[in-house]
Specification:
- This protein is an alpha/beta fold and 557 residues long.
- It folds into 2 domains: 417 residues, ANL, N-terminal domain (Rossmann fold); 113 residues, ANL, C-terminal domain (GMP Synthetase, Chain A, domain 3, 2-Layer Sandwich), CATH 3.30.300.
- It contains 17 helices and 27 strands.
- Strands 2-1-11-10-12-13-14-15-16 form a 9-stranded mixed beta sheet.
- The chain is globular and about 70 Å long.
């Protein structure tokens, strides 16, 4: 009997000491996880999907997924796809994403998931850089591919889901219907074989190509699901994310299916609907929930008491740090804590808050079992508590399983992040006396004003504590005297209007709740903030606009 009230991790320090991931020489997520569940419990629920209205539920068992992925693997074989070749995959939140993903993984073909918000230019860059042979997308996005397919010399095959196309496009439905259900003559995959390729979001330079292996995501996301998400085989888990973001790998397939939990899939439209989200949590009895902080910030503005969320037992957040005020509001409205976690496209969950230990609101938590995480200086020296530095993962003498294989075709970037005994994440934080980590910001987000180093997140958290503030983003703004000053872009809560008086009130509020030198000297009231598809605030975009055209005093003399 499974006790849902008993956390998977009962003693943090003990688990840290004893935990080891077993990695066999050969491993394939499709055969060793999906197919094994299909044989052991063929009718066990793997996926529960609803449409954009939140209606028309479609359940899929592990047997369904096993058979359909075999069919798709045979489709790929017929098209001549081989182990190690790349496929560009751009789909909304539909079940076919799972079939195509697992089918490719079984063959050792490397899927490259992308968000449907990719432009034609984005697609062209990704297809040509990876030398993709095949593009798979839905009927709503074929026009983007049609615009650039003539400039993709390696592209041989086009496949559309949800519609018939005659002008060179294969129909997914027709191909799958004509494919055999059993799969033979498949080359085995080693644990360190490439399994998945993600393009990180690039705002200044071209996106990095992050290669993960059968082990680094296919095995190691057990850490994410077991310890941080605290999943049981009886759970119905919902992670809100686009299918093209690595958060889908974190919360929609690998660790969840390894444990045997079912995944909830809602094919959301581009505009987030907080009321519908809460109704779905209620109606379908979601038991565990993960969302980016921007979602929680909007949800806590609703009357949470109107919804019966008695099945919901565990909530997590990742993508960027979660403000303490939002954590408090969610707990008051639902009775549930939010367990913040930290990681990257390059990793599984590596720092987190866990059920077995107290939460310090606003903290990232402590290092995940399986990882040695430290705060280090530029030379790789570990820093004592309360000293700001780089978040780094120890990779020598033993490289952790849940770390990416490489930035594909970019040895220079590899040398930038792997230095000495460490992998440098590019993020900065400090560790307190109890071993909890506190996020400062991306290394290039830190604001230096009159010699003071100011992390944007701390200021954003202070602003959100004020009842007038729904969301806030903080960046550096140029200043002739101080070099940089703190600027805040603020979305107001319902019932408030922007004014000079309110600006002064917010400034004084920040001075009271944090160090006075950190207060925003500039405030703009805005209706929306630029965000990635994953919900992260694009601080870089705001910062570039602030600095465009600015000239230092010396430049004008």
């Amino acid at each position: 009997m499974i006790d849902i009230n008993e956390p998977n991790m009962k003693d943090y320090e003990l688990e840290r000491k004893k935990f080891r991931l077993e990695v066999p020489d050969y491993f394939n997520f499709g055969f060793d996880i999906v197919d094994k569940w299909a044989k052991r419990q063929p009718n066990k629920l793997a996926l529960f999907a609803v449409d954009r209205s939140g209606e028309n539920p479609r359940p899929y068992s592990f047997r369904d997924m096993s058979r359909a992925s075999n069919r798709f693997a045979n489709v790929l074989k017929r098209l001549g796809l081989r182990k190690g070749e790349c496929v560009f995959l751009m789909l909304p939140r539909i079940p076919e994403w799972y079939v195509t993903m697992v089918g490719m993984i079984k063959l050792g073909v490397i899927p490259m998931p992308a968000t449907t918000q990719c432009t034609s230019k984005d697609i062209e860059y990704r297809v040509n850089t990876s030398k993709s042979d095949l593009v798979i997308t839905d009927i709503e996005n074929v026009f983007k591919v049609d615009e650039i397919k003539g400039r993709c010399k390696y592209l041989k095959n086009l496949m559309v889901i949800g519609g018939e196309r005659k002008d060179g496009w294969l129909s997914y439905e027709s191909e799958l219907a004509n494919a055999a259900e059993s799969i033979v003559d498949v080359e085995r995959t080693k644990s360190d074989d490439p399994m998945l390729l993600y393009f990180t979001s690039g705002t200044v330079a071209n996106p990095k190509m992050v290669i993960h292996t059968q082990a680094s995501f296919g095995i190691a996301h057990l850490i994410t699901a077991k310890f941080w998400q605290d999943l049981k085989p009886t759970d119905l888990h919902w992670t809100i994310s686009d299918m093209g973001w690595s958060k889908a790998a974190w919360g929609k397939i690998f660790g969840q299916w390894t444990i045997g939990a079912a995944v909830f899939l809602y094919n959301a439209s581009s505009k987030f609907d907080p009321k519908l989200t809460l109704r779905l949590l209620e109606r379908y009895g979601i038991t565990t929930f993960c969302a980016p902080p921007t979602v929680y910030r909007v949800l806590v503005l609703e009357d949470l008491g109107r919804y019966k969320l008695d099945k919901l037992r565990h909530c997590t957040a990742a993508g960027e740090p979660l403000n303490p005020e939002v954590i408090s509001r969610w707990e008051k409205g639902t009775g549930l804590k939010i367990y913040d976690g930290y990681g990257q496209t390059e990793t599984v969950n590596i720092v987190g808050n866990y059920r077995c230990m107290p939460i310090k609101p606003g903290s990232m938590g402590k290092p995940t079992p399986g990882f040695d995480i430290a705060i280090v200086d530029d030379n790789g020296r570990e820093l004592p508590p309360r000293r700001e530095g780089h978040i780094a993962i120890r990779v020598k003498p033993t490289r952790p399983v849940g770390l990416f294989k490489e930035y594909w075709k970019e040895p220079a970037r590899m040398k930038e992040v792997f230095k000495g005994d460490w992998y440098y994440t590019g993020d900065r934080a400090y560790r307190d006396d109890d071993g909890y980590f506190w996020f400062i910001g991306r290394a290039d987000d830190v604001i230096i004003s009159s010699g003071y180093r100011i992390g944007p997140f701390e200021v954003e958290s202070a602003l959100i504590e004020h009842p007038a503030v729904a969301e806030a983003a903080v960046v550096a703004s140029p200043d002739d005297l101080r070099g940089e000053v703190v600027k805040a872009f603020v979305i107001l809560a319902p019932g408030y209007e922007g004014s000079e008086e309110l600006k002064k009130e917010l400034q004084e509020h920040v001075k009271r709740v944090t160090a006075p030198y950190k207060h925003p000297r500039k405030i703009d009231f805005v209706n929306e903030l630029p965000k990635t598809i994953s919900g992260k605030i694009k601080r870089g975009e705001l910062k570039r606009k602030e600095w465009e055209g600015w000239k230092r005093p010396s430049d004008t003399q």
